[in-house]
Amino acid sequence: MSTSLDSTNGVWLVSLLLETLLYGIGVLQTWIYIASRPTDVAPVKWTVLVVLALETIQVVLFFHSSYLRFVERFGQIQLDLIWADSLQLPAAYLSAFIVQL
């Protein structure tokens, strides 16, 4: 019999794995872009670097939130919102907004 936290924590860990893989792909793409396109204008390069920085912030906050949730508060049911969870969304939304521009 599964506990009530299996579905929540399982999805959390799967999303952490997928986000980490996609972040690694994004870092590789950024490195390839910077190395292979030295003649691109500075605003385009800075846009790519800003998006990478925002994605890095988002991933770091996700790992921090996961650490708090699964290590420091192991076995406790979360009733409050961890501050890192609140900061992940603005970083993700801002990077998506910049990409859409």
Notes on the protein architecture:
- By secondary structure, the chain is an all-alpha fold.
- It has one domain.
- It has three helices and no strands.
- α1 packs antiparallel against α2 and α2 runs antiparallel to α3.
- The longest helix has 31 residues.
- Keywords: Membrane, Transmembrane, Transmembrane helix.
Draw up the topology in text.
Blueprint (H helix, E strand, L loop, with lengths): L5 H31 L5 H31 L10 H18 L1
- Poorly predicted parts: none
pLDDT average, as an integer?
85
Number of helices: 3
Helical proportion, percent range: over 70%
Helix-strand pattern = HHH
Distance between the termini: 48 Å
Strand runs, count: 0
Oligomer: single chain
In percent, how much strand structure appears in the residues? under 5%
- Structural class, from helix and strand content? mainly alpha
Domain count: the total is: 1
Rg of Cα set: 17 Å
Largest sheet: none
Q: What best-fitting shape do the alpha-carbon axes yield?
A: elongated
Keywords: Membrane, Transmembrane, Transmembrane helix
Transmembrane segments: 12-34, 46-63
